[in-house]
Amino acid sequence: MSGGTVDRVVVVGNGIAGLTAADTLREAGFDGELTIVGDEPHPAYSRPALSKALLLDGDDMTSHELPPTGHGAKELLGVRATGLDLDRRLVTLDDGAALPYDRLVLATGSRARRLSDLPEETTLRGLDDALSLRGRLASRPSVVVVGGGPLGMEIASGCLAAGCRVTLVSQGPPLILQLGPYLAGVFVKAALDRGLTIVETEAARFERRAGDARVVLDDGTVLEAELLLSSVGDVPNTEWLADTGLVAKGAAVPVDSRGLVRPDVAAVGDLAAFPTPHGLRRIPLWSSAIEQAKVAARALLHGDDAPPLRFQPYFWTEQFGLSLKAVGHLPPPGEPTYLDGGPGGGSALMRWSYGDGTGVAVALNHRIPIPRLRRMSQAAT
Ligand SMILES: Cc1cc2nc3c(=O)[nH]c(=O)nc-3n(C[C@H](O)[C@H](O)[C@H](O)COP(=O)(O)OP(=O)(O)OC[C@H]3O[C@@H](n4cnc5c(N)ncnc54)[C@H](O)[C@@H]3O)c2cc1C
Predict the structure, then answer these.
(1) Which of 122, 139, 203, 372 has its CA 20 to 30 A from that of 70?
(2) Domain locations along the chain
């Protein structure tokens, strides 16, 4: 093991990145004292399920649950880390305790970015948010969703499926930045067919007038609804690291190709900016958090002998009756080659080539196993 004995590892953040780091530490042979600190009171759960099955499923309230953990860590749940002393190797907690460590994993993720301080601006990030939203949808309120990215569209889809009248406000066509024009067109058509109203604008804001909260567009148009939601990106939870010098522009923690910020500290998941072909980037996706955590946990124990991150993006979404799985760097430009099915069909396999042996492979309503989809994206020439 690099840099002295490793008897105590502390993981701060009990999301998928923290959980995967803890599991991987054990797999890699660490049998010392492992402690996980998480400010949510719940055991780790699947965040992607919150805007998909959990919003939709009738009585099934288990889609977000993850298998029981096997890492045997001491879990301090409902406890927030408030500070870090890198020299003394101490994490301070909001209950006044200080946790010493030999190795530390920073995995505090991110939170929903907000457009206002109004309590009526509802966001979906955590399990409590999802359960509260689910409860509110039962009375079928009218809904405005601000944000035309994948999460905004999933939320709009869930609200429509619950029987609500839904308007989605988007800067430009929904999903175009994330999925490119071709796939965005497929999803927008499905959304319109199901009754979604889409309003494009340069900017939207939340404001209160005469006691009521509403959404106002840049041309002055006012949108009123019983439920106002926003889904406009995320902000890393790094305030507790403010005095450490580890936090860079955009509130992210930059890491090396093994997820380390220094030999005894790793940063993984939504808060970390790691080297990509396009420079240091945060890629706040589920598979990204898992891959980063697996690499960084081994690097904390074995330093440069551990393999670096070889990240191949994987993204999925479910909305408006469509399920998409995509491997490769999105958004793909132009039109795809169809490998199975075709435009307008029920299910399809598509491929875009970047001409350098890489590309994007997409399964739409198709049950292809992910490893095959991965191979398909790399075979694209
Ligand atoms: C509704 C929703 C749907 C999504 N759908 C998809 C999808 O379909 N596909 C996909 O690839 N990705 C999706 N994502 C993104 C994916 O869920 C995230 O990239 C992933 O969960 C990040 O994991 P993480 O462990 O880094 O962060 P998080 O899951 O945010 O976990 C961090 C944990 O640390 C806690 N924490 C924060 N600060 C402190 C502190 N100071 N002390 C202690 N604990 C702290 C947080 O409360 C949280 O529990 C979705 C995200 C959301 C919100």
Answers:
(1) 372
(2) 8-111+234-305, 114-230, 332-378
Cα 229 from Cα 118, distance rounded (Å): 11
Q: What are 160's two structure tokens? A: 């429509």
**Best substitution site from 63, 69, 94, 108 to test ligand 1's pocket, by max atoms within 8 Å of Cβ?**
108
The pLDDT mean for the chain works out to 94
The model's pLDDT over 318-358, given as tens digits with 9 standing for 90+, comes to: 999 999 999 998 999 899 999 999 987 789 999 999 888 78
Q: Which two tokens stand for residue 223?
A: 């949108």
Distance 209 CA to ligand 1 centre (A): 34
State if residue 93 touches ligand 1 by the CB under 6 angstroms criterion: no
Q: How would residue 381 be classed by pLDDT, with cut points 50, 70 and 90? A: very low
How far is it, in rounded angstroms, from Cα 32 to Cα 6? 7
Helix, strand, coil % in the chain, rounded to nearest 5: 25, 30, 45
Nearest to 33 by CA among 129, 102, 136, 119: 102
Report the nearest-CA residue for atom 29 of ligand 1: 15
Q: Is 10's C-beta closer than 6 angstroms to any atom of ligand 1?
A: no
Q: Do domains 8-111+234-305 and 114-230 have the same CATH topology?
A: yes
**Fold exhibited by the domain 114-230:** FAD/NAD(P)-binding domain (3.50.50)
Q: 144 vs 178, 322, 332, 374, CA distance in Å?
A: 21, 21, 29, 36
Q: How far is the CA of 51 from the centre of ligand 1 (A)?
A: 13
Query: What's the angle, vertex CA 161, arms to CA 124 and CA 148, rounded to 5?
Result: 50
Tell me which residue of 222, 164, 193, 40 sits closest to 155, measured CA to CA: 164
Token readout for 9 is 């590892």
Tell me the whole-structure pTM to 2 decimals. 0.96
